[in-house]
Design goal:
Length: about 450
């Protein structure tokens, strides 16, 4: 807590954010405007948003058992604290696809951000740039690819100008840019797909992430109750990516005038599954376009699929069940992680997604073998409260909690002491966490 006697290390002292909050409260009576306790934050988000906006990001498949399984899985793994360890300097850094980043946390791709803030994706893109963390842009964005890239670059430049100690380099040389990934929902018009990924590459998105678990939306009763498909409602956001794409508009612009759902139904959640042969085509085209930059497949829950992804040429996988929003009654992502790590962990980069709420959750996923984790609902809840300010507060709090967890648990380095260290965890096969908050309740 002593900010004057902190030895400099490879990572920022994220833990000092807690002290900063304590001091503001104690000296000038300034307190956070909302709770960052995950359950309380989720509950207060319901009060900030309309039902349509809230349930777009929070409605689960079926009765929500997969979402619950994600949280129960984290509860069953317990951290083993160590004592009398020098943790005065912590190293949270990691290298991801050639990018040295300050912490193993990415902004997960979530669509239609204008439901949560008028600036939409510009909010998380800006905060990711400020923090130096990778930002993943969804195909279902409500801001053009190029504008998101500009805002992300501007924030990263300000960060580097104000911080001469902690700068993080990427494969493009220099450190003004923050890592950017583009998440692709691949339609069945190859010309439109190529237009999207070309725009992404030209805008500095140098990792392509293909989502394969959402050819169509899962069965979501809470959305059904509200007929909650924003793309069909006049005057609501959702078609901006299509509207900003010259190829899509040239070919289908007139159709979009007659049918507002043309973009989403034809190019995104089209209900017509691709196969591994089409994944091979997407890899080939991205590698040709980008000069060999990484291709990641998102939606992996089985070791067999992970091995197939490796065979067809993927550089990484995202272990995820789409946060419980696609298959009700599916296995928890954290339960799938160890066998996927065993199958391909020495040959591929493994990202983890689905259920991350706390710094200790991040610790556990890394200890089980993930190279980094993706966070989605947390930053959506934050930006829903106060835009940039809320998004920043939630993500800085998560970084602080991870930093403090390393300190008090006795693990000074992510790479040396936490990553793939099952001795840092114990598995408790029985018991479930108290589920005091039901994300699907009105």
């Amino acid at each position: 807590m002593d900010s004057e006697n902190k030895p400099k290390g490879p990572s920022p002292h994220y833990s000092l954010y807690q002290r900063e909050i304590f001091k503001r409260g104690g000296t000038v009576g300034q307190f956070p405007h909302f709770s960052i306790h995950p359950e309380e934050l989720q509950e207060s988000t319901k009060k900030k948003l309309s039902d349509r906006s809230y349930f777009y990001a929070n409605a689960n498949a079926g009765v929500g058992w997969t979402d619950q399984a994600n949280r129960e899985a984290f509860y069953r793994w317990r951290i083993v604290p160590r004592t009398c360890v020098d943790t005065n300097v912590r190293d949270l850094t990691t290298t991801l696809f050639g990018h040295l980043i300050p912490a193993p946390i990415l902004f997960a791709p979530i669509g239609i951000n204008k439901l949560y803030s008028p600036l939409g994706e510009l909010v998380p893109a800006r905060i990711a740039g400020e923090l130096g963390l990778p930002y993943c842009l969804s195909t279902v964005a409500t801001q053009p690819i190029e504008e998101v890239a500009r805002v992300n670059d501007e924030a990263a430049s300000v960060r580097n100008e104000s911080n001469s100690v902690h700068q993080y380099d990427g494969p493009n040389g220099g450190n003004a840019k923050s890592p950017r990934f583009f998440q692709l929902y691949m339609g069945h018009d190859d010309e439109v797909t190529l237009s999207l990924i070309t725009r992404a590459w030209m805008s500095g998105f140098d990792v392509l992430m293909l989502t394969t678990d959402t050819w169509q939306l899962g069965w979501r009763p809470k959305d059904i109750n509200l007929a909650n498909y924003t793309f069909y409602h006049q005057g609501t956001p959702g078609n901006e990516m299509g509207l900003s794409d010259p190829v899509f508009m040239r070919k289908y612009g007139k159709d979009l005038e007659r049918d507002q759902g043309k973009w989403i139904d034809y190019s995104v959640w089209h209900g017509k599954a691709h196969t591994w042969d089409k994944v091979r085509w997407a890899i080939q085209e991205w590698k040709r376009l980008s000069g060999g930059r990484p291709f990641v497949i998102k939606g992996i829950q089985s070791a067999e699929d992970a091995r197939t992804a490796l065979e067809v040429g993927c550089d990484g996988v995202v272990v995820t069940n789409h946060a419980g929003r696609q298959v009700d009654g599916a296995i928890a992502s954290l339960d799938a992680l160890p066998e996927i790590v065993e199958a391909v962990g020495d040959k591929m980069t493994i990202l983890f997604d689905s259920g991350i709420r706390t710094g200790s959750d991040v610790f556990k996923a890394l200890a089980l073998g993930a190279h980094a984790v993706m966070v989605g609902r947390l930053w959506v809840w934050g930006m829903s409260h106060e835009g940039d300010v809320g998004c920043r507060h939630v993500m800085k709090s998560l970084l602080a909690e991870l930093d403090i967890t390393l300190t008090v648990a006795g693990y000074p380095s992510i790479q040396k002491n936490v990553w793939r260290n099952k001795d840092a965890l114990r598995f408790n096969p029985s018991g479930v966490p108290p589920m005091s908050n039901d994300s699907d309740k009105f």
